[in-house]
Amino acid sequence: MDKNKRGKQSLNILITVNSAFARQSVVLIKSILCHNPDVRIYVLYCDLKENEILLLKDFCMAEGTEITFLKAEKDILSGLRTAEPFSCEVYLRLFAHLYLPEDVEKILYLDTDIICNGSLKDFYDTDLKEYSLLACARDDAFCNADFLRENWDKKDALRGKYFNSGVLLLNCKKMRAIFPDTECLQKFIQSAGIDYLFDQGLLNYIYAKNSILITSSVYNFRLGYYLKNCPDVLGNIRMDDVKLIHYSGEITPYKPWDLCFTDDEIEKYELTAGNAEYQVLFSVRREINENAKIWWEYAANTPVYEELLSEMTVKKEWFKRGISGFLKRLSVL
Predict the structure, then answer these.
(1) Phi/psi at 15 (nearest 5 deg)?
(2) Which residues contact 63 (CB under 8 A, 6 or more apart)?
(3) Could you read off the pLDDT of 80-94 as tens digits, one per residue?
């Protein structure tokens, strides 16, 4: 019986994982458990090594949390466009309702480059009614959401004009009624002809008119997106209110586990006023670094910390050498 139907409600959490993000998934799960005590984790995957499954299983067992692994056949994703850094697994969220147990009627999907920094209960308890999902709108589109619903067309989906696909509260019961099997969903996807923005383009195309949109600053905070597109919005956001931090949309695409600097290193490598061109090139910015530190605070309390820290330290040394060489060349021009 689904705990959602019991007196005490648990949070169903869905992640889709491949080998590249198995360890980062441990950090995500740890952050969720720090603020949400009654959680069940579902892992949907195509390719995971046995030791990676064991890593996640042992970690959840040690935390006293239930975890269920759901293996999908890769052929359901055949023909779908991929490109670095997006693997075919990004599309699994479209098929999740068909792999989850029937008694799971609602589940919160999270990208694995997210951490949870607060309670998700209010978000999870949202009444989805007859909508297929709840998602976080891009802030520049949120104020025009009603207009977009009325005037939506395929081009809007291609631009990802409605919502980001990294945080999705899914109404599995409703989605099963729309797409009762993989063949039905595959045929619809093929007929849609959407091959931009990967899963996000498809999700917008399929569900934009049947979704609840909310502003993204609390439950899908993407600092890089704000810095690049609407920096003025940042002054209105209290980080104490942010529940989900999503490490996507940075000015250059590195994640916290790729680079994170000490305060002394930031003093040395942050390229400030007058060097905006270099900031964009190197993306060494104090705001981004402070945001990355939050991820590492959660990582420090996981069994993958030392390994991730060692790898990041090596990457950072190569990064420093690259900057030093670049600046030396500039000085002689």
Answers:
(1) -130, 150
(2) 29, 30, 33
(3) 655 455 667 888 999
| Amino acid type, 199 | D
Q: Are residues 29 and 144 in the same domain?
A: yes
Tokens of 123: 């978000």
CA distances from 319 to 20, 84, 267, 296 (A): 21, 21, 15, 19
Residue 126, number of CB atoms within 10 A of its CB? 13
* 243 inside domain: no
The closest alpha carbon to 209, from 155, 128, 159, 145, belongs to: 145
Are 203 and 285 in a shared domain?
no
Does the pTM exceed 0.85? yes
Whole-angstrom distance, CA of residue 246 vs CA of residue 167: 9
Task: Give the SS3 label for residue 221.
Answer: strand
4-28 confidence digits (pLDDT tens): 443 356 899 999 999 999 999 999 9
Closest CA to 269 of 329, 331, 333, 326: 326
